[in-house]
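Bit of a strange request maybe. I'm writing a small parser for structure token strings and I need a real example to test against, not something I typed by hand. Could someone generate the tokens for this chain?
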Amino acid sequence: MFMKKEIIETIISKTVKQKIKNIRSIVGKGDVNKIFVVELENRKVLLRINSKWDGLMEFKKEVWCIEKSKKKGVPCSNILGVGMYKDYSYMIYDFIQGRSGGEIKNKKEVWVTIGRYAKLINSVKVKGYGLRFSPEDNRFTESWSRHIRYNIESLNEEDKLLDLKIYDKDQLIMIKKYFFDLKKNKFKIGLIHNDLSLRNVVVNDVGDVFLIDWGCAEANFVPLGEFVEILGAGHMDLKIPTSEEIDCFLKGYGISKKEFEILKKDISKFLLLVSFDKLRWAIDKSLGDVKEMSKIARKRLSYALEINNY
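Reply from user aminoacidic:
Good idea to test on real output. This should exercise your parser:
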């Protein structure tokens, strides 16, 4: 998506009444958004912009999640505005001067803070379920019952995942049991950031830790949902935290190692469900991602079988 300088200048002038001194594109950040650092007379702002049909709705979801989390005590950037200009959706917020969590020497302390933030975020009350959000009535619009039913019914002898050798017919009954376990359990639904990692925090000069990138935030099971990206169910190239860093996250969240060992069984089933669902999406919508998603699904199945002593 090529972006003319005039478009950026017009969008910024609609929200921030200051002269623009410099515009710098941030390369390699964000899957669907173009991101720019805009230097003004006495401050810097960050502009995210895209031409997705539902881009404005997604930005409004982020605003809702950020504001609710800030009220719980999670430091986030100050949002200056969201809106539409021609075919473009945009979001503008204050630029946070600092270093990425991955550049910090004491990464363990950062992980403790991330764990503490996760518990605060998970305590936000939500309506509905899933990733999609309706800003008109401030609710998430998907259905857990339809989601789990689809994934259970897809486990049959004509399943495309069998053709991909993700699992074999001898494992089908066990996998169905895992998903039925998730269906019958009464998990608490809350807000999850859904992309907790060192790359999504900024630490300023005085050591304050800010949480960024709320595009994946959704209403889901807590705390199970927060472990999806931490344990790497979404990306093969995502650097998984070390066991010590995960221990630090648990410490910040307030989960003991003993509690986590018990929770692991449900987490492993949930990770498997997520990876199978994403693979089915790739088969239908994005064939170029099938190879990577297949590797993830096989890895998550091995993990689930191991944790559940199968």
